[in-house]
Design a protein that fits this description.
four-stranded parallel beta sheet; about 15% strand
Length: about 100
């Protein structure tokens, strides 16, 4: 069992892509992992990007792995999270489809 942070695109997507984050978190939890889901951390869609990223990164650094949703490379926040995870030598998981 690992503590896994889910990262992916949110800004500009319908429902901030929360359904994909929730589906990935559910799939990882079903496999026995503890999951940090930014869609749960930042449930208020009116919160600013900087505020959300500060909260998210504080949780990211407590994890052993990062799970990247499709399209993560087009997201400024997810690219930052992936960079931090890489520099911290965390395991990187690439999720296929919204449901992991």
């Amino acid at each position: 069992m690992k503590r896994i942070y889910v990262a992916g695109p949110m800004s500009g997507l319908p429902e901030l892509n929360f359904p994909a984050f929730h589906a990935a978190a559910a799939a990882l939890r079903a496999k026995g992992h503890e999951v940090v889901n930014p869609a749960e951390i930042n449930a208020d869609p009116s919160a600013g990007w900087n505020t959300c990223m500060r909260q998210d990164i504080a949780q990211l650094v407590t994890c052993e792995a990062i799970a990247l949703l499709p399209g993560w490379e087009k997201s400024r926040g997810a690219r930052l999270e992936a960079h931090i995870a890489g520099q911290l030598e965390m395991q990187v998981l690439y999720l296929e489809g919204a449901a992991a």
